[in-house]
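Annex B. Sample input.
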Amino acid sequence: MTNKSAATGFKVTEDSELMAFLLQKLPQQSRTSIKTLLQNRQIWIDGQPVTQFNYQLKIGQQVDIQRNKGTSAERPRSLPILFEDAHLIVVEKPAGLLSMATDREKEQTAYSQLSSYVKQQNPPSKIFIVHRLDRETSGVMVFAKSAVVQERLQNAWNTDTKERIYLAITEGVPALVSGKITSYLFESKAFIVYSSQNPQRGQYAASHYEVLKTTRANALLKVRLETGRKNQVRVHLQDLNTPIVGDKKYGATTNPIRRLGLHAWVLAFEHPITGQLLRFETKIPLPFSDFFK
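Annex B, continued. Sample output.
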């Protein structure tokens, strides 16, 4: 829904980067003044404010320039927003926060916080979960702003996701400094994922790991996912006989950092509308870096 205070509107007739498009349509404006318009949430695309100057426009989209500064919704304090446009929100979920509601917890979730945030900007707005992270896992997480975008992302998640990298602190040190783990994963009625070498028993899963740092009893691993199955990293590191610290469910007996030692570190994927490659790399959580000082 386009804001009624829009002074000027343009239809996109060819694919273009937003800054180049605005410089062409607003020749009286400098790059600096256009960046100010973006910062003030005065540039709207298909009814939603956009602040990224390098946003990739597609044919058919509507670009509106508002007369007045847009209202700035209060961002969730405990849920840093890494990227936002008219179609997506990418956040860094902290450990201990649920991705979405359960029977026991409905209010304190990433979903509920982002839902409140988008409704501040536009009351009819909704958000849609694309994928989940376990409650005690921190890191990059993607939400869609429409059912259409959610469906596109989910349907092409394995093909359009270019990088999925986790950091894990393990109980014990792998025998090899790097390697590949493959198996077939299946989930029991008790919601525990098991690993099998029998292709008839589950879905194929592949993980590549590299040891980054070690102590006498622990290792910091970089784990790159070739597939994205539920609890894949947790189960595959259990297969190595080096379960993730704090992961009692999958074999750990110690918890030296007082949280699950798993962090979704890097995520790169193609934007479902613009086709732009988006890549997000978070800082290494302090409990991880402090443990290996």
